Every structure is written in structure tokens, then in C-alpha cells.
Amino acid sequence: MATLSPRSVFITGSSSGIGLELVRQLVNLSHRPQHLLASCRDPSSDEARQLQDIAAAHPEVVVVKLDITSDQDIKEAVVTAEQVLGEEGLNLLINNAAILSKVSGVRDVTRDDLVGHFDCNTAGPMMVSKSLLPLLLKAANKSLSHLSCNRAAIINVSSGLSSMSFCIKNMKHPWYSYICSKAALTMATNIMGRELCNDGILVAAVNPGHVKTNMGGSDAPICVEDCVSNLLRTFASFNERSVGLLHSNYGEVIPW
């Protein structure tokens, strides 16, 4: 079985939930990253306290201020990444940050709610990926190995609901803004994957499942520790056959 051992990782939405648990488990890998840039909207907030505690105990963790809907924040985050990573570049970008308002039904959805979700859940990951692309290319060019999360990769944390076939069977709430913005992210993953694979960058999407987090709720069936443990094994398994596809947290391909 392949081992996940990227030299450098950048994660968005790291102050809670899946993002925080990704940081926690990555620093405890046997081949942990030399550099882990963990970003969140407000590193000084109470929500980010656990992230700051991890950073204090692990010098390889750098906490980065990043609201992915802010072009200025993205520019400043890239400067920080360049300073930390230098010519070695970035091996693994995990676009995890997202919002879910739970506005339900066509009678209640608003333009502002739709635009806000598309800005954060679709445009945000795309702009972060675009801005960090030069660093990903540097890492990709350091190796002639096959596509993998150890060489250079963009992983978009999407949703099973972004798949039409999955949504038809499993949708419980008509969350137009969330579902449509995640469907757009999954489509962007497919396009970006086919565009960047020849540059040595793997792009894929994952559905973490219904996870017990602030977003997923306390009644969710999957604990965040198990979710992230499975995700890291899935990341390790990604290769050329994974490009542009949506996967479960166990690595199975979810049909469009």
C-alpha cells in the first residue's frame, strides 16, 4: 500500500472540524510533512485555539490567516507560503474550507445566499488553487514520478450531494446553495484535473460523508477522527486513475 508522505501541505479551513483533524493527524504521521501551512479566517479567534495549540507543539505547523473569499488574503497567504516553502514548492493543497447555511427550499433561497455559497465553495477553492499553482508546479517538476499526493496534488473536499446520481438517492434537504456550489466544485475538479495532469499535478475531489462537526451536526453518523483517517488512506492511494473524479472517504469513485 502507498504511503502518504508529502514534504509540504497547505490546508484551508483548519480551525475546526475536518480541517483541524487533518492537521492533528498529519503531524502524527510516521512520515509527517516538513511544512504544514494550516489556514483559517481568524487565527486569533477562540475557534482557532486548538489549532494554535498544535502549532505551538509542532514547529512544522504555520498558521496562516486566510478567508478564501478575499483576494487580498489569498495574495498574502501565497507570500507566506513562498517564504516557507521556497524552491521546493508545494506538494499537497487540500481545499477544505466551505460554508453551509441550510437555507432550505426554493421558497426561501435568496440571491445573496446562492452567491455567498458559490463564492466560498466554488470560486474560493479555484482562486486558492490558481494562486498556489506556481508552487505546485515547482514541486511537480522536482520529480518524474507518477501522479500522487506526494508529488503535487490539489484535493477538493466536496460532497456526495455534488453527484446527481448520489443526490437523487440521498438528498434529504433541498439546500440549493450548498448542493449547487459543491456540484460546481466537483465539475471544476474534473476540468482542472484534465488540464493539469500533464503538468504533473493530480487533481481530485473527495466526499467526506456526513461527519460529526459543527457543519455536519451532532447526529451525524461518522466521527471526524475516522473520517480523516480514511481520507488520508484515500489520499495515499490516488494516482493517474483518480484524476478529476469524486471519491468517497474510502476511495471508491462516486458516479457523476
What does this protein structure show overall?
- The relative contact order is 0.15.
- Helix 1 packs across helix 7 (224-237), helix 3 packs parallel to helix 4 (111-141) and helix 4 runs parallel beside helix 6.
- By secondary structure, this protein is an alpha/beta fold.
- It contains 7 helices and 7 strands, in the order E-H-E-H-E-H-E-H-E-H-H-E-H-E.
- Helix 4 (111-141) links the parallel strand 4 (92-95) and strand 5 (153-157).
| Sheet of most strands | 7 strands, parallel
For the residues shown, what is the average pLDDT?
A: 94
- End-to-end distance, in Å? 27 Å
Strand order of the largest sheet: 3-2-1-4-5-6-7
Radius of gyration: 17 Å
Number of helical segments? 7
Structural class by SSE content: alpha/beta
Keywords:
42% helix, alpha/beta, 256 residues, 7 helices
SSE layout and pairing:
Blueprint: E1 8-11, H1 17-26, E2 35-40, H2 49-57, E3 61-65, H3 71-85, E4 92-95, H4 111-141, E5 153-157, H5 164-170, H6 176-196, E6 202-207, H7 224-237, E7 246-248
Parallel strand pairs: 1-2, 1-4, 2-3, 4-5, 5-6, 6-7
Helix pairs in contact: 1-7, 3-4, 4-6
Summed up:
The chain is an alpha/beta fold. It is built from seven helices and seven strands, in the order βαβαβαβαβααβαβ.
